[in-house]
Structures are given as C-alpha cells and as structure tokens.
TrEMBL record:
One of its GO terms (molecular function) is kinase activity. It comes from Syntrophus gentianae. Transmembrane segments: none annotated. The lineage of its organism: Bacteria, Pseudomonadati, Thermodesulfobacteriota, Syntrophia, Syntrophales. This is PTS system, mannose-specific IIA component. GO terms for cellular component: cytoplasm; membrane.
Length: 136
C-alpha cells in the first residue's frame, strides 16, 4: 500500500485527516507534518524523513502539500525520488477521501496523477452548477 504524508502550514492537514476520517472512518498509512514558525528547517526535514520511513512499505509515499511554492511544498520537493516519493500540491478533502479507495491498485506515479485529477475535478463554482441545473 502507498503511504500518504500530508505537509501543510499549521494544522490544516490534521484537520483534513479528521474530516476524512469522520466521513470514511480511520485511515491507514496516513500522517501529517505541520509547518509553523516554531520549527526550524532541519528539524522539519528530519520529521519529514522519519514520516516517509514510517509510511513506506515498499510501494512509495505520496506527499500532499497545501500550496505550491510554500514552505511545505518546497521542503517536500527535496524528497522527490522516482518511484519512491511523489509530491502533489493543493491538497483538498476530496483527494483524501479518494486515497483510501485506490492506493492499493496503482503504482506511485499513476496514483499521484489520479489523486491530482480527482482533486481538480471536485472543485466547482457553485453558481455555475446551480445555473446549469436551473437551465436544464
């Protein structure tokens, strides 16, 4: 099974995990690293490295971050390793709900692409959706 590590500013990732578990139940091989001003870069790198080791059961680890170009994303990019660690930015709740369904059936790269696509497909402008229903 592919491990999933969420790295976000503050407790955003922890709250996303709590919300996903509220909807779908407990998650396996899912951890969060919080980035805040109380932790130095070296300390964060050690925490990320340790989390990757805990999560990797031979199929790799997908890191989900909150914002491309932010500290969580920038730190994660230093861990990229083909077929071992992949990084996807812009984590959202639909992504977390999907990871528990599919991560046993794919390789890391395909899994990362699928999660990315699923996250994008579940972003809507509510007024457009409602206008289509009213017009339809």
């Amino acid at each position: 099974m592919i491990g999933v590590l969420i790295i976000t500013h503050g407790n955003v990732g922890d709250e996303l995990i709590k919300a996903a578990e509220l909807i779908k139940g407990p998650s396996k091989l899912l951890l969060h690293v919080s980035v805040d001003s109380s932790k130095g870069v070296e300390s964060l790198k050690k925490e990320i490295s340790s989390s990757i080791k805990k999560l990797d059961q031979g199929q790799g680890v997908l890191i989900l971050t909150d914002l491309f170009g932010g500290t969580p994303s920038n730190l994660s990019l230093s861990f990229l390793k083909k077929d071992k660690v992949e990084v996807v930015t812009g984590v959202n709740l639909p992504m977390l709900l999907k990871v528990s369904d599919i991560r046993q059936d794919m390789n890391l790269r395909d899994f990362a692409a699928h999660v990315t696509d699923y996250g994008r497909k579940n972003i809507y402008l509510a007024s457009e959706v409602l206008d289509k229903k009213i017009a339809g």
